[in-house]
Amino acid sequence: LAKHFLDRIQASGLNAFTHVDAALTLQQAAAADLRLANGDATALTGIPIAHKDIFVTRDWRSTAGSHMLENYTSPFDATVVEHFNKAGMVTLGKLNCDEFAMGSSNENSYFGPVKNPWDLTAVPGGSSGGSAAAIAARLAPAATATDTGGSIRQPASFCGVTGIKPTYGSVSRYGMIAFASSLDQGGPIAKTAEDCGMLLNAMTSFDPKDSTSIERAKEDFTRDLNKDLKGLRIGVPREFFGAGLAKDVEQAVRAALAEYEELGATLVDISLPKTELSIPVYYVIAPAEASSNLSRFDGVRYGHRAADYKDLNDMYRKSRAEGFGNEVKRRILVGAYVLSHGYYDAYYLQAQKIRRLIAQDFQAAFQQCDVIMGPVAPTVAWDLGDKADDPIANYLADIFTLSTSLAGLPGMSIPCGFGQGEKNAKRPVGLQLIGNYFEEAKLLNVAHQFQ
Ligand code: GLN
């Protein structure tokens, strides 16, 4: 199995991987074979998996898609990687992503963009573009990803695969290279909800090494997959179907909602009034946290160090100037600005207050419905290069995924069709499913019934 996927990776030309080491993979595969032969296997033993290059690994390089960490190898495995290793999964390599997970098109990677397997001229989405493209092109049967403001759901949507961002605090952030710590959350991307459930079973844990990890009883996320959906109330937020939504995406999403009605669900008109504010709120809070998290990359302890410098400050300055790409620098500047004395109250504190209101809107909505559904993104995947020099256009495209992250809620993307017209007919549309806290099993059930 590992060999089969390694061959596909080599032949693919999608740039989905940043680092592959066939010898290492085959070594893990041999160990898995031994476990299988000894009757010591889990449901996942011997199944290949690839990790977003945000999770640190001892045996593979860990780059976060950055020149800063181009040659970095971690002395330890991320908790998530450790869990999959223990389960006997076989690592295929590391997956390309936007630099430090900042982006919506994978074009911010130092290692170059990933191509969308459905249409090689389209972006795969981001920041987990490598994860989604690898699943879509069958370069791996399972992948890890991370979602800070949509990075699991949006690339899953653009590549026609299934991804789930669990409740904040369910999956350990230990060894996940930090972008915005109050938002970052790991999760799986795979072909189906059922596969995602199995992966989530191995991925989720209380981890004392992550200060925001939540201590909860172990649960089986696949337990409800086959429940029927009779009586399910689906909240359809008005604000997700406004002027910015492309007609072809709207049609695919509405058709999916109609199918849910046939499965016994009812649609409830709901309102998430602060949806639009999630963009400015997120693009204040995420850069603020990023500016703090990324201060560790100073050229002293690890990462890129400039070759020539006059003194310590000059070394910091040059190492960071050379090591970081433009989008990362932009976020550090914005973040330092909104946290600075005099602007903190006006921007950062204000954003935190609105963040709370956004979370409250969801709680009010969940009084009326069991799950919320809508589009993942306003359009299908756009052309490579189209928005590469336009950060604002990228930020605006995050409109439907940011609020879930700000509230810490679980969110999912499942494929529900394609765009329309000569160009978009090959580009997938994703349906977004949002649940209340810790309702991953319910989301997976609702997704599985559709699939
Ligand atoms: N597109 C968003 C950003 O650029 C979200 C990224 C993410 O979820 N990691 O910040």
From TrEMBL:
Any GO BP annotation: translation
InterPro entries named in the record: Amidase, Amidase_CS, Amidase_dom, AS_sf, GatA
GO molecular function: ATP binding; glutaminyl-tRNA synthase (glutamine-hydrolyzing) activity
EC number: 6.3.5.7
Occurrences of domain Amidase (ranges): 1-444
Active site: K52, S127, S151
Tagged with keyword Translocase: no
GO cellular component entries: glutamyl-tRNA(Gln) amidotransferase complex
Keyword line: ATP-binding, Ligase, Nucleotide-binding, Protein biosynthesis
Subunit note: Heterotrimer of A, B and C subunits.
PANTHER family: GLUTAMYL-TRNA(GLN) AMIDOTRANSFERASE SUBUNIT A (PTHR11895:SF151), TRANSAMIDASE (PTHR11895)
Task of the protein: Allows the formation of correctly charged Gln-tRNA(Gln) through the transamidation of misacylated Glu-tRNA(Gln) in organisms which lack glutaminyl-tRNA synthetase. The reaction takes place in the presence of glutamine and ATP through an activated gamma-phospho-Glu-tRNA(Gln).
Name used for this protein in its record: Glutamyl-tRNA(Gln) amidotransferase subunit A
Encoding gene, per UniProt annotation: gatA
